[in-house]
Amino acid sequence: MAFRLYIVPAIGSGASTSDARRPKYIHALRPPGAWMDFGFNPVFLCGVDMTAPQDTSVVANADVFAFPFDLTATISGGAVTTRKARFEDFLIPGDGVVNGMTEKACGRYVAGLFQYMQRLNGVLGNEVFIDTLAKLNVLWNTVPVDPYQTAILEAAHSIGYDTSFIVGTTQVRAILRNFADQWGNETFHFGTFNL
Amino acid sequence: VTTLTETFDTADSDTLGPVNTWVEDVGDIDIVSNKARLITAGAAVARISTNLSSDNHYSQAVLRWDLVSGHASHGIIVRKAGSATQTYYMADIASSSDVARLFRCVAAAFTSLSADVGFVVSAATDYVLQLRCVGSNISALVDTVQKFSVTDTNIVGNLQVGLRSDREATGFNLDWNNFEAADIESVSHRATIAGSGNTTTSLTLVIPASTVANDIVVASFTNGGATADPTVADDEGAGTWVKILSGNNGASNLSVWWKRASGSTAGKTITGSVFTNSCTGGASVYSGCKLTGDPFGGATYESNISGNETHAAITPTINGSMVCLTVGQAPDLAIATQAATSPAVLIERFDHLSTGGADSACAHASEVQVTAESTGNLTWAQTNAATMSIAWYMIPEVAVVGGSRTTFNTRGFPLGMEVGMGWRMDLQ
């Protein structure tokens, strides 16, 4: 049909390749494309090309968010509020969604965030870093230095990100949003699809 | 740059070799009939204990099933931790479900990175599997056909490669042969720092924290109100800033400078000074550049009249060079959509506008060129105004095998190593 972005929960324990962490609903369909996880948080961003019946069946699930097919469309008005709330259901900081941004920019925001969280997973280990919405609002000066502040900074520095904007009163959600933006213009690869 | 090859051409043995020292972290893989063979039921992981020089590398092996039977997956790994820790990227072919697969394994937890791709295995047939990692791009090919390309930042810095397979029960054989691995010779963009604020006569840039020894730091500056070059220095107390090229259009100056990083360069502050009226700039860090002598080539300067948003083509001479374009101007106009023919798109690393004084702007873009050839004209988009532009390329360090420079084929690999090695950079 056409390339589309979906945010879906993760399934799988990761204990073996046959029970790898993988995107719910979509993995079993084997559509062309690929995905990225939200670090060790149990959420995937999938960029895949499914058939119309597959798309319909996946989107029908309440725990799935699908971007519009047209990524040049802009998000405005009440859709901004709705999108923010939908993202926060997945513990994705919703304040990265701003009035007038394109769907492509919104997708790239999520992808940039997920890439930082992957790096954090690599530094921090297999731990769900954001397990409640409240943790997004935690201030930096209340985040335990060891291991979390140390890991957050090490992960950022390892991919060349600036952390000088972080002060004691910076919320974790603001830190993550900033890191998502620092991905810059680089391409995200979803198989033959680029975002 | 390191190249590892393994023939497994030795007498039957419990110890893998003979060319390299192997460590079996999980299960048992032996030499049988001049091939590496999975011995046990369950998973097995073996790695060469020699580090590659860079985490931009590939591994490749010929895979063979003597009988397609039962649950089995057969593959190779890259960016393996140099220890028993089960952290690596893996591509394999699962003959029981007729698919090729791509995984990340971190501390023994597997994550699928892509949709499985249909692939039917035949018994007694050789398949060449190659797994590549360049920056955040992880890709895999089977028999030179690309099956996967994903973005993943989880594992960085690991320098070992090896074998991994898994099967439910014995009764058939999974073999590897002609294993090889090497650093991928190309320049990579590591990080960038753009100027900030509305600077006038001087500006400072803090070199990104991720900078490591032998990276090349490239700084670009626009002197909005005079034709003179600036003074460029930093507070490291070692190393020097050398000009790649500068030029002026009679009113303003554009200059590009480089310095080879040491282990102490990260976090140091570059100061550009002796500007007039308005200034701006930024610095990008590149890894994988030529280790001795000038790491750049082909630098050309142009003054462009209003409406001319084109810089003449340059021609890198080595595959994997980083094509660079810096554009500067005295008005504070944004630069965007930097492009060429090869590569098609240059990624904008920074574009900083200063409204200090009579305003100035400086933008830098770059991208890897897979095959050395003319770039075609370098272009960009902006509101019409006179500009200055400098184009050049950063030269990659190339492999040294057996003490002599290696000749590269047109796909970027040493001659004699072409089998099954389709080259698709997708480096971003």
**What is the SS-derived class of chain A?**
alpha+beta
- The multimeric state of the shown protein is heterodimer
User: What is the number of beta strands of chain A?
Assistant: 7
**Relative strand content of chain B:** over 45%
Task: Give the amount of beta strand of chain A, in percent.
Answer: 15-25%
Computed Rg of chain A:
16 Å
Number of helices of chain B: 0
Summary of the model, kept short:
The complex is a heterodimer of chains A (195) and B (428). Chain A is 34% helix and 17% strand. Chain A is of the alpha+beta class.
What would you note in describing this structure?
The complex is a heterodimer of chains A (195) and B (428). With 195 residues, chain A is of the alpha+beta class. Chain A is 34% helix and 17% strand. In chain A, strands 1, 2, 3, 4 and 5 form a 5-stranded antiparallel sheet that branches. Chain A has a two-stranded antiparallel sheet with strand order 6-7. In chain A, a hairpin with a 2-residue loop joins strand 3 and strand 4. The longest helix of chain A has 22 residues. Chain A is globular. The two termini of chain A are 17 Å apart. Chain B is an all-beta fold. Helix content of chain B is 0%, strand content 50%. Chain B contains no helices and 34 strands. Chains A and B meet through strand 2, strand 3, helix 3 and strand 6 of A and strand 9, strand 10, strand 11, strand 14 and strand 17 of B.
